[in-house]
Amino acid sequence: MLDNFDIPDLLIQNMKAARHVAVLTGAGISAESGVPTFREAQTGLWARYSPEELATPQAFQRNPQLVWEWYAWRRELVSRAEPNLGHVALAELAGLVPQFTLITQNVDGLHQRAGSPNVICLHGNIQETKCFAREHVLDNWPESEAVPPTCPTCGSLLRPNVVWFGENLPAAALQTAVAAAESCDVFLTIGTSALVQPAASLPLRAVERGATLVEVNPQATPLTRFADFALAGAAGEVLPVLVSRLKG
Ligand code: OAD
């Protein structure tokens, strides 16, 4: 039951005293919106496919049609999904603390659709497309039968504007995320297995600088032992309670 989720008073006091709260989210926050996570044993995206087959530049060069169609399927799924109570609570949290930074590894755009401002997207945006050769970013392209379609400017194949394994994260986004981790008083890590770098190192940077670390995840992760508060529940249940306690 929502109201039964027990949030320690000390955490509420820390958050009320914080000048800057930073948050890192992963696929788990969108699970309650029906968007599959990656590493869940039976249902995760990587349980059915390997990242090397679908989420690397080499995979795209080997089989661009397969990769395009897989992302087209995910794009469609995400378009039909709605933000859940966890996304909504984080949008509200932004207005409850003096400074707030929301960093996400998700490419689904659900934080933005829930009303969160200035979301730092470390892994790109699945709704955007860019071309493989020159990285021209497009929001539409001429109708054609070709799969994938090609860039109207340079003719190279189109791909999703997401970060693949072996690629660099967008530099400005990473820089802002690191600066937030290093300057926040409280860092919340929500719905991430904390296995993919460099995102997974952000909470530890915050800890090194003396921030309070809070984890929201029904499962333990490599970060759990560093967390001052490990809230073992679903984001859509824990975060609304956290926000309502902060308002109280
Ligand atoms: P993962 O699938 O690795 O981890 C999802 C985490 O969410 C797990 O730790 C779950 O226990 C947790 N979880 C599940 N349901 C939850 C809920 N309702 N509330 C809170 N937590 C829940 O996803 P990420 O950590 O986001 O990168 O994966 C990181 C990156 O690896 C992704 O951005 C993607 C992937 O490969 C790229 O594609 C480059």
Main features:
248 residues; alpha/beta; 3-stranded antiparallel sheet; 9 strands; elongated; binds 2'-O-acetyl adenosine-5-diphosphoribose
Question: Can you give a write-up of this model?
Answer:
The protein is α/β, with parallel strands linked by helices. It is 37% helix and 17% strand. The strands form 2 sheets. A 6-stranded parallel beta sheet has the order 3-2-1-7-8-9, sandwiched between helices. A 3-stranded antiparallel beta sheet has the order 5-4-6, with helices on one face. α7 (85-93) runs parallel beside α11. The chain is elongated, with a radius of gyration of 19 Å. It starts with 8 loop residues before the first helix and ends with a helix. The mean pLDDT is 94. The structure holds 2'-O-acetyl adenosine-5-diphosphoribose.
